[in-house]
Amino acid sequence: MRWMSGLALLVLLAGFGCSTQATDDCPAGERWCPDGCTNVQTDRSNCGGCGNVCPAGQLCQAGVCACPSGQQLCAGECFNTQTNPLHCGTCGNACDPGQTCTNGVCSGNCPTGQTSCGGVCTNLQNDPDNCGDCGNACGAGEPCFDGACQSGCPVGFTECSGRCVDLQKDEENCGECAHACGAGELCDGGVCGIRCPDGYTGCSGVCVSLASDFNNCGECGHACDPGQVCSGGTCSGGGCPSGLMDCSGSCVDTDNDPRNCGECGHGCPAGQACTAGVCGVLCPTGQVNCSGLCVTLATDPDHCGECGHACRDDQVCESGICDCTGRETDCSGVCVNTDIDPDNCGTCGHTCTGSEACVDGACTVSCPSGTTACGGYCVDTDSDRNHCGSCDHACASTESCLDGVCSSGGGVPGDSCAAPIDVTGGGLFTGTITGASADYSGSCGGTSGRDVVFRYTLTATTDVSINTFGSGFDTLIYVRGSCGGGTDIGCNDDARSTLRSELVLLDQPAGTYYIILDTFSSYVSGSDYALHVYFSAPSSLGGDACGEPSWIDIGTAADVSGNTCPWYWINARDDSVACSRGSGGLDFVYYFVVTTRGEYTFDTCGGDTDWDSILDLRRVCNDPSSTARVACNDDSCSLQSSVTATLDPGVYYLWIDGYSSSACGGYQINITH
């Protein structure tokens, strides 16, 4: 067959009614397809090439059909394998009936805020068949709201299948009952729309940057003319500003643009971001990537001040510097307390004589009332098992010292390793050391101080957070794998500029462990203790759960900020159910210590948080019930929240939660007091 001339070919095409649009006539960054010019990098109907339609639920990213971030393709559909019981952890791994999928693991326990009723997890707060309690069904026309059958729904809520829902923001009933939003969409103002990360806007089902996108410059659908570029949300013909590169008409920073990383057209894989022109892990503000782990150089003992710089076991990392804790001093490479150490009394190398004891950094032959000088320390011979009744009279390993006599134990719960208090469930535990014996001491102190023993068992690698904030005396805590002896896994005397103690043990292996809550010395005043113990699965995101909460210095902080949205690498969990819907919403938890009674306000108002947030202030981190709650709010300033409370001295936990599973993103919590 001979090739036709260009004119003959055009005549033939015209005879068949075909378009004669040429590729060169399309704007920069687009190509011609049968339905017109399009950007094959983002068009779901022409992804990577004309006619290549992405399946339902998938997006077109860098010319490739892919599931939204945080989802996996299973049998042609996108699923969140962290939560989907049919594909839990991996495609095709279905959980047994009655089980749920949490963090990619099938579990017989229901998620926080839900209860198993006949093997099915349900929310007793809004289930009309199990309202407030399993089997408590509401009557005809009675919706379930806040765990009680109602005669009707409150103002602002609509009854949908026996549940009171907010049609303005409920993904399962968006705008009207039974109108569910699709995967990756949120309900805003009663309309389903795509969920995009900070700095991006949903335009025709695609997340774009209005500041630089050639086809959506400044607003959705506003395309620049051929030869122009989009920079700062404005089309211009003057080229891209210094530091930005023209990528198909979009002025982008190739140092951090995930669709043009290092060079135009080089898109980062799902789950990665672009940093310094290289695709990889994106760490939140305040953290640094150290060999694939996001760490806080100011506080991480394995990466203190810089990646790979590890502190000694008896040191902590503060402000990026390895140092001894609290009242301890580094003496010849060992952290000691010069207030009570007879070998380093007051200063390193200053040793007390055999008849003296070290008290408040001075050698003395006179101990405080009720104590006796034994081995350089002032001890209470009524309770010290190493000096029971008199100096150097030690009790057997199975005995404790009570009233100066060695015995099998007293009536104080947790008085010895023989009968520790089990705290495996986590939470707040209170009690007294009055009547307890002084059995143990840790690597950071506790000689001759009365102590109480706790035990917990881990079935998998776990993050563990322990503190004694709220106790009525000068505490000290240490954790061991073997109760009576062995090496301390962690030991702390003074934490957060207080005389109370704190340990955060990350990635602790499965096994049984013992917490010993000790007193600083035998002559401290006060007896009532408060022990907070929390557990959660390991997370690369500090503040994701109670086992690794994020600290707020309430005395100086004016605000805190972060991001709960599972975009790029971030994958926050749903751990709490707050005062409003909250179920399925992604959340972070902060904690802080109040030393002086006062009024405090926390809010997400002001425009820095553009998704439907909830704030929940608690006394106990893992307890969302009203008994542990101080204040909670959903909508105070539009879709944002504000809580105000007068707080007594002690530790508090502040959750920021999403109203629903798709309510997430960057946030700022403002703090005033």
* Straight-line distance between termini: 86 Å
Shape: globular
How much strand? 25-35%
The helical percent reads under 10%
Radius of gyration: 31 Å
Strands across the major sheet, in which order?
37-39-44-41-42
Task: Look at the helices and sheets and give the structural class.
Answer: mainly beta
CATH architectural arrangement of the domain at 550-672: Sandwich
The tally of beta strands, per DSSP, is 54
Largest β-sheet summary: 5 strands, mixed
Using the coordinates shown, work out and report the CATH topology of the domain at 550-672.
Jelly Rolls
* Average pLDDT metric: 83
Number of helices: 1
Spans of at least 5 consecutive residues with low confidence: 1-24
CATH class of the domain at 550-672: Mainly Beta
Summarize the structure.
The protein is an all-beta fold. It has one helix and 54 strands.
Offer a few descriptive terms.
673 residues, mainly beta, Jelly Rolls, five-stranded mixed β-sheet, globular
Please provide a written account of the structure.
- The chain is mainly β.
- Among the domains are: 288-324, no CATH class; 421-536, Jelly Rolls; 550-672, Sandwich (Jelly Rolls).
- Helix content is 1%, strand content 33%.
- The chain contains 1 helix and 54 strands.
- A hairpin with a 2-residue loop joins strand 33 and strand 34.
- The radius of gyration is 31 Å and the shape is globular.
